[in-house]
Amino acid sequence: xxxxxTKVDETHANWVTAYNMLTGIRVSVSRTNAKLDRxxxxxxxxxxxxxxxxxxxxxxxxxxxxxxxxxxxxxxxxRNLRSLFRLDPADYLMSLTGKYILSELGSPGKSGSFFYFSxxxxxxxxxxxxxxxxxLRKILKDYYNHVKANPNTLLSQFYGLHRVKMPYxxxxxxxxxxxxxxxHRDIHQTFDLKGSTVGRDYKEDDLEKNPRATLKDLNWxxxxxxxxxxxxxxxxxxxxxxKDVKLLQRLGIMDYSLLIGIxxxxxxxxxxxxxxxxxxxxxxxxxxxxxxxxxxxxxTPSKLENQRKARELRQMIQxxxxxxxxxxxxxxxxxxxxxxxxxxxxxxxxxxxxxTHEDNSPADEIYYLGxxxxxxxxxxxxxxxxxxxxxxxxxxQISALPxxxxxxxxxxxxxxxxxxxxxxxxxxxxxxxx
Length: 434
Ligand code: ATP
Ligand code: CA
Ligand code: CA
Hints:
Phosphatidylinositol Phosphate Kinase II Beta, Phosphatidylinositol Phosphate Kinase Iibeta, Chain: A, domain 2, binds adenosine-5'-triphosphate, binds calcium ion, 1-phosphatidylinositol-4-phosphate 5-kinase
């Protein structure tokens, strides 16, 4: 499995930031993991765990290459969230910091966020605005309770909220979250759907240059695509989506989307057999990104690599010994395993959710899907945007709607496109007859 991204190494402009992010995570998360388990308390939501790193190090903080400050927000809550999402603590740290390799994906889109993949492609680090950071802290309790009550939530899985600050530098806030797409499967098409049609079009002409671009609502409609789910799966999916959207509405959130990656089983992974074809990830979707020779290929770890990974982990834990952090996991590193977590409903089929016919028999696609970008509060900016856009055009079709309407339109759109092939054919016949 070959993926593409710009490797962040010592020569990369963001190397120091990336190094500091990973060092902070390694030290702070191991410290939290080493503690004896106990329930989450209300006070845990307000905790900020600060560490100051320098070349010398001290009893609590090991030495680092650079001077920086790191803050871990609500570490105990996130430890519990990771456990609710069934992450193995050692695996998590290993993926992110076993080797300091990240690949940076695309430069900022509209929002200005940076995206980094862990080297095994399981996790995404997204830098976020201060407003999004403050907002996540504000809603963390609601989010946590929601995840507890909804183990199959489709919302972004947040694993950590952190901040780094370099001397004289500005504060960089970031979250660690799940990569919805699997390391082991080609994603043949990607859609980012909001349920709006205004400006929701990826220029079809640009697809030639950038065949794996993230497509949008109008591209979906133009292709007469459906999210092919038979009766049972459709119901499970829409029920969960409704619950998730209800939370977003209650919290005043909008501008999120349903991200859908489609793996076509008829095509399989053939494009990767020679390691020639690359998946180009393009946040924002507007800037065509072509694979350039400076971009570094990353392979999904093989079994052998996994064993090496386990060895590295053991060394890492040993290296950490002088620091009073303890083991990062009770599980033996040798047991580390790659792959999907089938205990989550929408990951049950090879890490995704397989398309079905009306009678629930399997169809030819696997969907990897979830609700992303859910930290935008309907604030003053959106109100202004709504006002200006509202002066021209149909108000229900623009994207900056108040949260209640945004969620209703979103649900409406997604329910409208979720149907088995058989159902779609019947619907078309009925339309033709009318
Ligand atoms: P904007 O606010 O302009 O939409 P943003 O910087 O907030 O942009 P997102 O909307 O969060 O970015 O994500 C942009 C793109 O990055 C998505 O369309 C998708 O292609 C990819 N992406 C984001 N989150 C994930 C994820 N968890 N898994 C896989 N891909 C993701
Ligand atoms: Ca978005
Ligand atoms: Ca955003």
